[in-house]
Amino acid sequence: MVGPIPFLIAFLFGILIHSIFPYERISEIILVHIFLFIIFLVWRFTLLRRVCLVLLCILFGFWRFNITIPSVASQAQLTEKEVIIEGIVSKKLSFWSIVDGRFAVRGLQKITPYSFVRVTCQLDKIPFSSGFDRRLWFARQGIWFECTSNNEVYVRLPDRWNVFSYLRHVRDVLSTKIRDLFEASRAELLIGMLYGSPDFLPDDLEIFRRSGLMHLVAVSGSNISIVVIASFTILLRIGFRRRHAFWLTTLSVMTYVCFVGFSASVLRAALMAWLSLFGRDRGRIVHPVVLLLGCAVFLNLWNPWQLVFDPGFVLSFLAMIGLVGIARPFQDIFYWIPKNAGLRETVCMTFGATMMTSPYLAYCFGQWSLAGMFTNLIAVPLVPWVMGSGACASVIDNGLIGNFCHQAAFGFLNIIYMIARWSSVVPGLSGYIQFPLWMMLFVYFLLFGWMWHLKKSFPQVYSKSVYFF
Fold it and tell me: Average pLDDT in the 312-317 region?
């Protein structure tokens, strides 16, 4: 491996090492001594310079994870007496409200997000729990303390200039309008495909899980690519130059990301889309492996708990690895599948993504599904049409255009819903199986070895421009 790839992998490997014992903070003095020792090796043995730089990247990843864990002294200082917490309610999670991005506070159910609050309460460390690990759930969001507020709560409504509050209000208004226009199951499907966060009934949720179509209602690469392609094409058609269209498309992607939320899959897709567009704008070929690893490093610099403990992050990158390492080479293998309407590309992409995500799903959720290899052939090409007609129907609800968009969206949603329902009842396409950790790692060892063989068999796929998001 040449270029930045070994150093990017080394940084992620350092985070992975610390993830084995995620709640134990290592003394900074120890890490400083290790750092100085590596610097000495670089100075004394020039032949080991590249190896030492890799070790420094591993140490940097280890340190980045380490500083997210509060020290024992700070934990004791915060929990020994009542404290005053003040800040913006950034998120609502079940019974808790996240204040100042660091504290989970109970008793603020009626407080709207992005309001400013001041609470006096006694902090407690989030306890370890079996089954649903609440400690891990909060830790990967940077939250280590919880409390229950008393009656003395000061509240100030969100500022008018708060863009996130305004976008949330727009999203709530659109969701209400969509639920008025469509029946419950179709409305939640459309909401999920437009901007995520559907409120599925348990039966509908199980149907989409078994059919392999849950990715349709989780905003990710397909949504971002539609926004990018639509924005860039429209801007060019109405007369903008490519450079101006690039920056306006960047602005549209940033607005859409703020609108749907900063989940790992959304940030990964948006970052890859922007870097791909930037490379084309500069006339440079983007190496897909460097692009993927660079996005992973950037996101883990922001939150290193994602690498191991965020299933959305892991599944998003596994799916992209399948697209890069399996889907593109397989387009030459499956030459007999016609290219009409992108059929061959859709088959290969679905096959690659399913192969790479299935072992992790079996390990993490105890489920497997092959139905997606068939349902996605029909559902994925309909996504742009659903998003376009659904957005039109939610904005224009009267007149000829509004009725046409409503009927079109209703028809497309019915097709996707019927495909999901039929495939979920076909025996042998989905089921439940729990992979132990060693089995998952063994399967991925075989898959990555196979991808390395495909890389040598199809070296040309890594020399082309990247056209995926």
Answer: 85
